[in-house]
Amino acid sequence: MDVKTKKKKTNWSNNEFETLVSEYENKFDVLEGDLSVFLTGSYKRKAWESVMEWTRKWLNMQSPRLIISTQKFKKQKKIQTII
Known about the structure:
Distance between the termini: 44 Å
Largest sheet: none
Mean pLDDT: 77
Oligomer: single chain
């Protein structure tokens, strides 16, 4: 019995993953540090937002497939609102 299984496409390319890890490492002390008077939850949240914003900017510059998928999403949304 041959059972064919679909191989799941990865969510992140190697470049995207390396970028995210690099930014995480830059903010590691803040993100993984214990809460204190100087290191608050809001400071940690801002650090995560900074990591994700920088990663998004880098991906927008590097990844044409992200732009294409965004355009497809907008087109689908426009079609659904017409229906």
